[in-house]
Automatic annotation (TrEMBL):
Localization terms from the record: Plastid, Chloroplast
Domain of life where this protein originates: Eukaryota
Catalytic reaction(s) noted: 2 5-aminolevulinate = porphobilinogen + 2 H2O + H(+)
Name of this protein: Delta-aminolevulinic acid dehydratase
Cofactor(s) required for function per UniProt: Mg(2+)
Similarity annotation: Belongs to the ALAD family.
InterPro entries per UniProt: ALAD (IPR001731), ALAD_AS (IPR030656), Aldolase_TIM (IPR013785)
GO molecular function annotations of the record: metal ion binding; porphobilinogen synthase activity
Amino acid sequence: MATTPIFNASCSFPSIKGIDCKSYIGLRSNVSKVSIASTRIATSQRRNIVIRASNGHAKKLGMSDAECEAAVAAGNVPEAPPVPPKPAAPVGTPIIQPLNLNRRPRRNRASPAVRAAFQETDISPANFVYPLFIHEGEEDTPIGAMPGCYRLGWRHGLVQEVAKARAVGVNSIVLFPKVPEALKTPTGDEAYNDNGLVPRTIRLLKDKYPDLIIYTDVALDPYSSDGHDGIVREDGVIMNDETVHQLCKQAVSQARAGADVVSPSDMMDGRVGAIRAALDAEGFQNVSIMSYTAKYASSFYGPFREALDSNPRFGDKKTYQMNPANYREALIEAREDEAEGADILLVKPGLPYLDIIRLLRDKSPLPIAAYQVSGEYSMIKAGGVLKMIDEEKVMMESLMCLRRAGADIILTYFALQAATCLCGEKR
Ligand code: PBG
């Protein structure tokens, strides 16, 4: 990749003005051509030029300034192109008196340059966290319900995918493991095996890419023979405090392997404070906690559960995940998580819950994350494959809307595709 400041400038342009990708790309190429030319001159001159305050050597093009002014004063005004004629309206257009409006908001949307100037929200690859599915295999296995997503071999496919993401500016990932059935138990103890799939993968990635930001998922469901995020009592109750005990061990194990941000997605009460204390007790004061603050009991998680084969064996997750009908309840969760020491508050799913993102954005000074979940991703993909919608445009619009609602970062399976689009390059 070229490293001139100009290349970087032109690459960052569409990431500043994200949504109207195509038209900005057109605009950008002109802009960058001009600036490349002028910068080349500037750099070649810089080496041996002495900068003077006077303009003693101004180049002569013809008449002097005084002669020009005298000519105009004498009435010999030079020619410039005429004002173009008014564009014609189609035959049959009614002839009317213009409306007497003192505000016409369309003036501020009249051209790509004007729209770019007044765009309120921006989006860049730096805002994305890329969720990646990993498994023990050597090959990458396509996930049927999520076109374009794979269970990646932790040693090869994963490393390649991370390299691709970093090349377009996505340097944050979150790992989701597909755990062998034989290792699943009712208490999910594999979750804190220091040599389990996740800790092993973290160590491999950190060895290759020390500056990669690794988020981990803290919850028992991939490790639980019941497919629930917590330990299930014989009457079906999900045991809160006992589960939190396990989650603390899981978070510490992930931190020990090198995780930067542990992300409890289980929705047990009190787990943020307990995990903070457990991390601190082990010397992991610098490991952050991204709490799934408002995680709803949503049907939009369907494709994810297929990806990890983590469907609950019975019942649903409604005694711990939130009721989709509830708004104020998100504030109760947010206050607890803030008080317990969360560094980032997450809302999940994303697009159907924009009001919750906005609520937390307005009520908390903490960074807000939005999770554009598997069902949201798959619907856009399916609509695109069926040619019912323009996949790329809907993808960029949905991500921009999450930013507009107040999300600082977005966990999205589109991270690589969207960042590639923002960099203006098809790969
Ligand atoms: C489980 C977990 C889930 C997701 C992330 N972590 C599923 C669930 O709660 O059942 C869903 C992500 C997605 O649908 O993309 N701890």
